[in-house]
């Protein structure tokens, strides 16, 4: 388990996201999860961290090619209905994803695959969701 500093969250330097990893070298770790809040990294990326840094990620040393899309339901009253639709979409097209809460999911975008059905499904949700693309 490594930590990624989230300096832009909460105004302080004590905010971290825990990331599941697999050690692949002396100070190298492969991400085994899709980051929710940490930017500039994705599932399968190899990152640098060591004891001297308190096992805080110091940077990406090898990119996996994966991207990340975060989807958040905008209105609390829509969470249940939109969660079901998102869950059905992601299951049908078999995308790797992780739920932070019923109204917030992060999705791994694999290279070399058409994502038209995924983004089309998100477009059908209209302004009920906010979509953020990173590393794609």
List its salient traits.
136 residues, alpha+beta, Alpha-Beta Plaits, four-stranded antiparallel sheet, 2 helices, 34% strand, globular
Name the poorly predicted regions.
none
Q: Strand order across the biggest sheet?
A: 3-4-5-6
Please state the average pLDDT score: 92
Question: From the alpha-carbon coordinates, what is the Rg to the nearest angstrom?
Answer: 16 Å
What's the topology here?
Layout: E1 2-5, E2 16-19, E3 21-23, E4 28-31, E5 46-48, E6 59-62, E7 67-73, H1 79-93, E8 97-101, E9 104-109, H2 116-124, E10 129-134
Antiparallel strand pairs: 1-2, 3-4, 4-5, 5-6, 7-9, 7-10, 8-9
Helix pairs in contact: 1-2
Can you describe this structure?
The chain is α+β, with helices and mostly antiparallel strands. It is 18% helix and 34% strand. The protein folds into two domains: 2-62, no CATH class; 67-134, ACT domain (Alpha-Beta Plaits). It has two helices and ten strands, in the order E-E-E-E-E-E-E-H-E-E-H-E. A four-stranded antiparallel sheet has the order 3-4-5-6, with no helix packed on it. Strand 3 (21-23) and strand 4 (28-31) form a beta hairpin. Helix 1 packs antiparallel against helix 2. It is globular and about 45 Å long. The chain starts with a strand and ends with a strand.
């Amino acid at each position: 388990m490594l930590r990624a500093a989230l300096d832009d969250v909460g105004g302080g330097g004590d905010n971290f996201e825990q990331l599941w990893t697999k050690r692949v070298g002396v100070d190298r770790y492969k991400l085994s999860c899709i980051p929710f809040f940490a930017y500039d990294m994705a599932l399968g990326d190899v990152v640098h961290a060591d004891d001297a840094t308190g096992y805080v990620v110091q940077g990406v040393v090898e990119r996996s090619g994966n991207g990340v899309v975060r989807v958040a339901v905008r209105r609390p009253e829509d969470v249940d209905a939109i969660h079901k639709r998102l869950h059905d979409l992601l299951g049908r097209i078999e995308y790797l994803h992780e739920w932070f809460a019923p109204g917030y999911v992060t999705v791994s975008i694999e290279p070399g695959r058409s994502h038209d059905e995924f983004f089309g499904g998100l477009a059908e949700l209209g302004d009920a969701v906010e979509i953020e693309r990173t590393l794609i």
